Amino acid sequence: MDTLAFRKLTDWLVDGARSAPSPPQMMAETCERLVAAGLPLARVGVFVRTLHPDIVGRNFVWRAGSEVVVGSANYEMLDSEEYRTSPLAIVFAKGCEIRAKLDGPDGNRFPIFAELREEGTTDYIALPLLNVDGSVHASSWTTKQPGGFTDMQLKALRELIPPLSRLIEVTRLRFMSSILLDTYVGNRAGERILGGQIRRGHTEIMQAAIWLSDLRGFTALSDRLPAETVIEILNQYFDCQVSAIATHGGEVLKFMGDGLLAVFPFDEYVGDMGHACAKVLEAACEARANVEAMQFPIGETVERFRFGVALHVGQILYGNIGGGNRLDFTCIGPAVNLAARLEKMASRLHRTVVASAAFAKSCPDRWDELGEFPIAGFSKAERVFGLSDETAGANALPLAGHSSGSVVNSSG
What we know:
The protein has two domains: 3-185, GAF domain (Beta-Lactamase), CATH 3.30.450; 188-408, Alpha-Beta Plaits, CATH 3.30.70. It is of the alpha+beta class. The longest helix has 35 residues, at 151-185. It is built from 13 helices and 17 strands. 40% of the residues lie in helices and 30% in strands. The radius of gyration is 28 Å and the shape is elongated.
C-alpha cells in the first residue's frame, strides 16, 4: 500500500471531496484512488437508507473499469428472500462487519457468494457506515487478488470508513432534505426553500395555468365509511391525478381534504400559454379517464367515483405566506380564487372539466360555452366552458352496468 496516497485520499474525503461534487463521482474517484494506492478492488457497493414514501434506499455500485451504477430499492425489497439471506441484512440490523474468503469455510454462508465466486472474486468484506444520528448504512468491498485482501489492505479499508461515513452522511442529509421538500411542497417550491427562500414575504409573480379539483360526494362518503377506508380511497383518487399532472409538466402545490391545487408555470415546465394549456387539458382528460376507471370494493358493492376540475390561466403570487414561524409555500391571487369558484360551478353544471374563457381561448376547438354566470366575490360575470365530448345529462346519471355498486356523484 502507498501510505502517502492513502493519506491524501482520507484528507480529500475529510475536506469534502470537492473535485467530485456528485455521489457517483465521489465514489468513482475514491475507488480509483484506492486502486492507485495499491488496494486491488474488484467491486464496491455503498447502500444508503433514505426517507422517501416509495424508496427505502439507494445503492451505488462501482466495478473496476466501469462507471458507477446508481439504483434504488422499494420497501418490498426488505421482505425479499434475496435481501433476507444477504450479508447486508445483518450489517443493517446489527451494525457489524461481515468478512469471508470465498474459498474458505465461510465461502458458502450467503447465496450471493456463489455469484461472486463465478466472477473470480476471492474475498469479501461488508463494513457498516455509522452516522451521527445512529442510523446504520452499509458498504461492501471485494477483490480478485489471489489469497484475498492482506491484513494491511483490510486495515486501510477500516480506516477509510469513518471519513467516508461522514461525507456520505452529509450527502445523504442533503438528498433527504430535497426528497422531503419535493414530497410535501413540490419540486419547484422545494428548490426555492433549499436555495434560501424561507422568510415570510419571499414571493414572486408568475403566469401559470391553474388546476383546482374536487371529489364529488366526499362529505357523504366520509360520513358512511370508516376513516381508514376514506384515506385509502383518497390516496387512490389522488394517484389518478398526480401522475397525469406531473407527466404533463405541472406541479401539485397542495392537497386540501379531497381538493387538489396544481400549477403549470408557462416559463419553466411547459412553455408558452397555448402550449401550457394544451398540456393541462391533456392531463385533465387523462385524470378524468383514470377516475372513471377507478373502482373500490366495499363489502358486496363497488364504489365508483367522479370528480370535477376547473382550469384557468392568470397571474399568481407564489411564495411564503403564514404567521410567526409557521409558513406555507403556496400561491394566492384572484386567478386562484376564480379557479376555486369555477370548480364549484362544475358541480352545479354536472360537468367534469370546466374552463374559464381565458383558458378556453388558449386551446380552442374542444369547448362548448355553457353560459355566463355571476361569480361570488367578482364584479363581473364569467363565461364558463365545458368540454365538447361531455354532456350535462350523461354526467348527471349513474354509470351503467354496475347495478351491484354505488356511484359517488353528489356535490362535495
